[in-house]
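Journal club side-thread
Mid-discussion, someone asked how the predicted structure for our own chain would compare to the paper's figures. Pasting it here so we can look after the session.
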Amino acid sequence: MSKLPFKVDWSNRSKLRGPGDGSMGELLKKLRDKLAPQAQGLSVSYVDDRIMRKLNNLHREINKTTDVLSFPSETGPGEFPHLGDIVISLPMADKMAQKLEVSRRREVETLLIHAFLHLCGYDHETDKGEMMALQAELEKELLEEEPLPMGLKRGRKAGSKVKVLKDGTKVVVTGRSAAAINRRAVEAKAKTKVKVKAKAKVKAKAPAKKTSEVKRGPGRPRKVETSVTPRKAPRRRRAVSTRTGVID
């Protein structure tokens, strides 16, 4: 265990509350002792999706929010050995926690371990699975819990599905297992449509209720139009041509 001091600077620019040094400080110290024993400083910032989207667009040219970003520090000789900065979107962490049916704190623990490994030089986008395997080991060792399935939030393979095991654990599956989950979902959707159509037919067959005639209330009686026989126009007399009897 490293005897060097280790200071974590915490900041929160989110409307949600994130766990601080009281609940996460010990985890970060254990990660420092195991992965970066010479580091003496680290910063953790909680933000909302708006800020995270700006940072992701600025540094990765991806114009959308994400759950966590890591910024390793480049310290020179004689400078304070600051390991780097971790930025976590609490709305994203909260959303993933609800999907996985865990607490927000538990999701943040996974994000901190993931980000800490990035600060130490690991990269799951270029390696052959070493980083994610080490992350799973650290979650089991330091948290004494099963690792969370990272595939739910970091680009699952196309066609993969999330399967819930009998003990409640969620895993990402592919191939035949994913196809079976997809087939069951399609069948359930089709059954729902059939039920909706059957209900609609029953409603259509039901006799329409007779509506009672609305009686006119008291007031001025309606005007009854009476048919009037039109008068015949007077016949015109023919004009009689008169002859004078004068011969020209």
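Post-session note: The first helix runs from residue 21 to 35.
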